[in-house]
Specification:
This protein starts with a strand and ends with a strand. It is built from no helices and 28 strands. It has 302 residues and is an all-beta fold. The strands form seven sheets. Strands 1-28-27-26 form a four-stranded antiparallel β-sheet, with no helix packed on it. It has a four-stranded antiparallel β-sheet with strand order 2-3-4-5, with no helix packed on it. It folds into two domains: 138 residues, 7 Propeller (Methylamine Dehydrogenase, Chain H), CATH 2.130.10.10; 133 residues, 7 Propeller (Methylamine Dehydrogenase, Chain H), CATH 2.130.10. A hairpin with a 4-residue loop joins strand 7 and strand 8. The model has no long low-confidence stretch (mean pLDDT 92).
Length: 302
């Protein structure tokens, strides 16, 4: 079993997303409109960033010690983490008409964002070293939670909860070159991860535990029945997957799976890891598991 080692109560509202930066510091974002960065090892609050006017959904670490945030206030902010105690807002990106869900970086000069406004926007850097939107693409017909992931140098994909479809897009021209329909996926933003260069794992809903998709052929090559709902997926080191699941009794559990060929073998489980919904969990160097959600508490597990 995974043993609980510490609790941190630092946010005053739902914890939406958390992850470790490349330098090893933990960062979390919340409905309380803040991002918080913690010291390595001690996990004391090191820096509080409050620049949005509404919930902060997610963030992505960019190059050169920068992050980009996504918010219900319809904006994204590029934040330069100058040092442990200081930051500057380099740019506020506007253009979406609704809640911005997620941003990915496809190279050093381009970003792709997705929103409840049913669109995906492509951003690139101009001569003044600022991002501008040069293309807007409709990606769905309904207002729905959706997710996006960079697959390789040629493709990325999006998945929408209400429409139950996974779309593959070409990076060089941003055209939808294939769609997998009738894929019953989870509503959460964190429910996809790469198993390797040619395998994508998508968290399922309604007891469709895991979809394993071959990227090169765009085919579902295996469906692994499992829990009622996969809420969050994270690829760990040494061929493990960490995930948050809701079981048939509506317990929210944290599980760790070993990837073995096309099978996922459960090796650890913590039942009822939080007393309310867990939105995100992540692991650092195969040592510390961190989780957070509706109970406003970040838990560290070992």
């Amino acid at each position: 079993m995974i043993n609980n080692i510490t609790l941190i109560k630092v946010h005053s509202d739902i914890i939406r997303y958390l992850n470790f930066l490349k330098d090893g510091r933990l960062i979390s974002c919340s409905n309380d409109m803040t991002l918080k960065i913690y010291k390595k090892n001690t996990f004391e609050i090191q820096l509080i960033i409050k620049e949005h006017k509404y919930y902060v959904n997610s963030f992505t670490e960019l190059n050169n010690n920068k992050i980009i945030t996504c918010s219900f206030d319809t904006t994204m902010k590029i934040i330069n983490l100058i040092n442990d105690k200081n930051y500057i807002i380099e740019q506020t990106l506007k253009g979406h008409l609704s809640n911005v869900l997620k941003v990915i970086e496809i190279n050093e000069n381009k970003l792709i964002s997705i929103s409840w406004d049913k669109t995906m926007k492509i951003w690139k850097i101009n001569s003044n070293n600022l991002y501008f939107c040069f293309k807007t693409i409709k990606i769905q017909n309904t207002i729905s939670n959706c997710n996006i992931i960079n697959l390789n140098n040629n493709e990325f994909c999006t998945v929408t909860y209400d429409e139950n479809c996974l779309k593959f897009w070409q990076i060089y021209n941003y055209l939808n070159n294939n769609t997998i329909y009738n894929i019953d996926v989870s509503w959460n933003l964190n429910s996809m991860c790469l198993l390797n260069d040619d395998l994508l794992c998508v968290g399922g809903n309604n007891y469709n535990g895991f979809y394993i998709i071959k990227i090169s052929t765009h085919n579902i090559i295996k469906k692994i029945t499992g829990p009622k709902k996969i809420i969050s997926l994270f690829k760990c080191v040494n061929n493990f997957i960490l995930c948050v699941i809701e079981d048939k009794n509506e317990n929210v559990n944290i599980c760790k799976y070993k990837i073995n060929d096309l099978n996922l073998e459960k090796i650890k489980e913590k039942k009822n890891a939080h007393n309310k919904m867990i939105y995100s969990c992540v692991e650092y160097k195969n040592e510390i598991i961190v989780s957070g959600g509706e109970d406003l508490i970040i838990k560290l597990w070992k």
